[in-house]
Write a structure and sequence with these properties.
38% strand, mainly beta, Methylamine Dehydrogenase, Chain H, 335 residues, 4-stranded antiparallel sheet, 1 helix, single chain, globular
């Protein structure tokens, strides 16, 4: 098994060898990595977006990386189509969207997103200009033309024509989008982690429900879904503020004081706190939540300080893995 995570300065790769020991390396050329995506049908193929080196691609589970071009702007979100491995989408800052249909040899801007942009979108996470950016992208596993796009902070949008045109903000989705994804196999289900809480959709992202019952904190930083049971999904949240540093908001990004918790929802039930061995609360934000497509019930949490925790029973019991990624900043995937 291989874990890939963005650290800010680059990407860290951790591989569990046959005898159980972990090997950690940082094979990416010097680049400010921001996001990762893995080909849903071939996990050897990984893509990384950067602020200063466009898009990089690996065909050997992250051991080596090569340039895959890019839009010439900082890349903040990536997704790869499950229908064609040569098709990938890159979201950028300020808000924009590009597509490659030849594996990164060339990129084309999908200008329809410009018409969907609202003047008041902004991101407090991107000073000094406060420019909004595309924070999340997802392609439906059942319809290659259906895309979801999240903006921090502004909207969750849906396209039915491969990104040529876009809807208005999907009501009840969270406008401060941090993470967004379709279920791996069931295109009816979609999930969001947002600054105002988690949201889910059961009709491919057309309509959303914003459920917070059971959550101690509503500032959600990451989400993941079980690969076999779409009604089972997970979210990591923190309170917006916490004593004694109530002036520091949101506390999820405060190292050592994140006050974070991981929750599970099943169908329409309230959120359930997942404790089973996890520190309560977590001092560092779980920016990386990931499920294993080949192992239903397995859930991985990559924390901001580089710790990785694993559950093999839908989050009931957790074990800290003997691996240190250094840090996990925003994105962690299984390759």
């Amino acid at each position: 098994m291989v874990l890939l995570a963005t650290t800010g300065p680059g990407v860290v790769r951790a591989e569990r060898r046959a005898h159980g020991a972990w090997h950690v390396e940082r094979p990416m050329p010097k680049a400010r990595a921001t996001c990762l995506a893995v080909d849903p049908n071939d996990r050897r193929r990984a893509w990384a977006g950067t602020r200063d080196a466009g898009v990089l691609r690996s065909d050997d589970t992250g051991r080596s990386w090569r340039s895959a071009g890019g839009p010439g702007r900082p890349v903040t979100a990536l997704t790869v189509s499950a229908h064609d491995p040569e098709v990938a989408y890159a979201g950028v800052t300020p808000v924009g969207l590009y597509v490659t249909r030849d594996g990164g040899a060339s990129w084309t801007e999908l200008t329809g997103l410009r018409r969907a942009r609202a003047w008041w979108w902004f991101s407090p996470a991107d000073p000094p200009g406060l420019a909004p950016y595309v924070s999340a992208l997802a392609v439906s596993p059942t319809d290659p033309q259906a895309l979801l796009l999240g903006v921090e902070a502004g909207a969750v949008l849906r396209s039915e024509d491969g990104g040529s045109t876009w809807s208005s903000h999907r009501r009840r989705a969270d406008r401060d989008c941090h993470a967004l994804q379709f279920h791996r196999r069931d295109g009816a289900w979609a999930y969001e982690a947002g600054g105002g809480g988690p949201a889910s959709s059961r009709d491919g992202g057309r309509t959303w429900r914003h459920g917070r019952a059971g959550l101690a904190g509503r500032y959600a930083v990451s989400c993941a879904a079980d690969p076999e049971r779409p009604e089972v999904w997970y979210v990591a949240t923190s309170p917006l503020a916490a004593w004694p540093r109530i002036w520091r908001m949101p506390v999820a990004h405060d190292p050592g004081r994140a006050h974070a918790t991981i929750y599970r929802a099943s169908g329409g039930a309230d959120w359930q706190r997942l404790e089973g061995g996890l520190p309560q609360p977590l001092a560092h934000a779980p920016y990386g939540l990931a499920t294993d497509p080949n192992e239903p019930g397995h859930l991985y949490a990559g924390l901001a300080d580089g710790q990785v925790w694993r559950s093999t029973d839908h989050g009931e019991v957790w074990t800290k893995l003997p691996v240190d990624l250094g840090r996990v900043r925003r994105s962690m995937v299984l390759a």
